[in-house]
């Protein structure tokens, strides 16, 4: 089954950005802080893939 991930974890962020685990965790924490400020609930250690794409690539979810 080919399924798009709704939430990215640290491994996903590491692979996408080709960064260290520590840096990937910092990115997830920063993005989740932004989501909390906007009034959203977050899953610790994960970030919505659509929000990640929007912040890093300016892409909107389809």
List keywords for this structure.
about 60 residues; mainly alpha; single chain; two-stranded antiparallel sheet
Describe the structure in your own words.
α1 packs across α2. The protein has 3 helices and 2 strands, in the order βααβα. The protein is globular. With 62 residues, it is mainly α. The relative contact order is 0.20.
Q: What is the topology?
A:
Elements: E1 7-8, H1 10-17, H2 21-37, E2 47-48, H3 49-57
Antiparallel strand pairs: 1-2
State the gist of this model:
By secondary structure, the chain is mainly alpha-helical. It contains three helices and two strands; from the N terminus they run βααβα.
Arrangement of strands in the largest sheet: 1-2
Average pLDDT works out at 91
Write the H/E string, N to C. EHHEH
Number of contiguous helices: 3
Helix content: 40-55%
> What is the percentage of strand-forming residues?
5-15%
Describe the largest sheet.
Answer: 2 strands, antiparallel
Quote the distance from N terminus to C terminus. 20 Å
